[in-house]
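Now for our specimen.

. . .
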Amino acid sequence: MPATANAPLRVLIAEAEHGLYAELLRQQAPELELCSSDQPAELAEYAASCPLWLGQPDLLLPLLRQGSRPQWLQSTWAGITPLLAKDLPTDYALTRAVGIFGQVMAEYVLCHLLAHERQLFAALASQVEQRWDNRLPRSLVGRKVLIVGSGDIGLSVAQFLAPFGIELLGIASSPRNLPPFRQVVGLDELPRLVGEADYLINLLPDTPNTRDIYDVALFAACKPSALFINAGRGVAVVDHALVNALKQGQLAGAVIDVCREEPLPAGHPFWDAPRLLLTGHSSAPTDPHLLVKLFVDNLARWKAGHALRGHVDFVRGY
């Protein structure tokens, strides 16, 4: 809670687009005193006097390491892994970006589902070769999509896909009834369901329980006609296992938005793996307008002592 009722709250904005965030926040919460930058020295100077922090985990991480503490930190990323390192403090409120990525992630997923069914990349290759290609496209109706990570974003993706006649299966931390999914089961049942999926979509966060789950055995259980899409976290995938699965025809293809190391280094096998498309961590960029709305909503909750949207449990990691 604020230290005094009358003093203006100071907010530290640590963002590459800090000017835009500051402008939007002034419009929606003019009572706040804003300190914004993307320069480490300036951020360090402001940090001690700002009880509220808003920004990128990679810019705020050094401040925590230097001993500064916010009362509440609102991340502009959905992923907050950098802030969960064991040597960092946990005596403050941390919230991740929630409720703002559903539409754009759903558009990303639908784009690649349709491209796969319509065989757009094969058509492009035929055009480059000046070879007439009149193969017939397929429909999404009746296709089975397994969304691994059926939380806020996964549910939005499912709701977006449902009108296309897709059969939706989900994986979550525990089984639940969650329309429009036909069923949602726990992560332990992933090996059972993966063989049913025409599309395997990873949207899991980075936690100790979600690392290296896409391994040799899991890819071997997939349909050879299945497309794998990873828009969750790169550490969920064992890289060599995916490359081998593609080379051995255990998957029809893969769309990889997130990698263990970013930018992907030269010489990494993903660059020339067969039927693998890299999209450079672009699936669901943060919209500053939506993020500022989330921050203002959480600010009202914080002032009132209510639960914050996207509150992170440091033990669970999300």
